[in-house]
């Protein structure tokens, strides 16, 4: 396997350079699909047929493409935030909770701002979601800086608190009276994200995600703040010697990552669900970590990585519906992709030491 991956690595390139991202990700995806084919065979189905149905389910119609793009938008937004944190050696795995709190804030702002003009209402609701996610992420940052609590533990625990908070508000002031399921009332029509593809449900969230991913790439590679993040990630002692404030930059990058995740929650509420629903954020945050790793920690490469996850999930539903292959196999594909990407990371690091 090492020889195979080395073919895809230019001399002197590291795994985390933008140019080498696809050189590692594409073989990882290929290996994952080959391995998953054996599980499909065990289920008594033809892997080629299953993958063809998956591909057709993801791209076979305008509605299917719109569904896949809508599914990808939260992955791209949250994955970009995780990428920035990982670049600074901050292991933020709290996207799930940050998305949940962002969704709460966006739904609340939409429900209480019905008198605002539609564009202003959308902007206010999205800003509220970003602010909620940022504040939720800052809790973990403050715990790390003041109490020495590892951010892996704090962000993980805050995920569960965020999910429980959604249930609490839906069983309280934000819940729809008489509903058979914990949910809020429908948000006003003026808070819906604009549809950008007529006769489909494709909303503007995907454009927002791509723009912010590109902006984050510029931030990381073309600004003093991005340089400080990369230096902190490469060598904290060197960053301290250079006079860089670790505390200040930890707060800033965690707030930025939380804002992107909270924005992902707002996009899901305003563009897909149109109300706050219990459990709406489940899976988005942890998949965002996988998207960040698949991208090679390059914000711009988060876009194709997020699209891959979104379209695979969209196609898996058709695979289950048409030929009976469980859609849960999509998680097998995603998990195997991550295993092979991590293997490539280890092999790359080992090769550079030799």
Strand content: under 5%
SS class: mainly alpha
Number of helices: 14
How far apart the termini lie comes to 17 Å
> What order do the SSEs take from the amino end to the carboxyl end, as H and E?
HHHHHHHHHHHHHH
Number of strands: 0
Q: Radius of gyration over alpha carbons?
A: 21 Å
**Average of the residue pLDDT scores:** 88
Major sheet details: none
Shape: globular
**Which stretches are low in confidence, meaning pLDDT under 50 for 5 or more residues running?**
1-19
Helix content: over 70%
What does this structure look like?
The chain is built from 14 helices and no strands. It has helices at 2-7, 18-42, 47-59, 62-87, 95-112, 118-147, 151-170, 205-222, 224-234, 236-241, 246-273, 284-294, 302-323, 329-353. The chain has 354 residues and is mainly α. The relative contact order is 0.21.
Write the layout of secondary structure elements.
Layout: H1 2-7, H2 18-42, H3 47-59, H4 62-87, H5 95-112, H6 118-147, H7 151-170, H8 205-222, H9 224-234, H10 236-241, H11 246-273, H12 284-294, H13 302-323, H14 329-353
Helix pairs in contact: 2-14, 3-13, 4-8, 4-9, 4-11, 4-12, 4-13, 5-6, 5-7, 5-11, 5-12, 6-7, 6-11, 8-9, 12-13
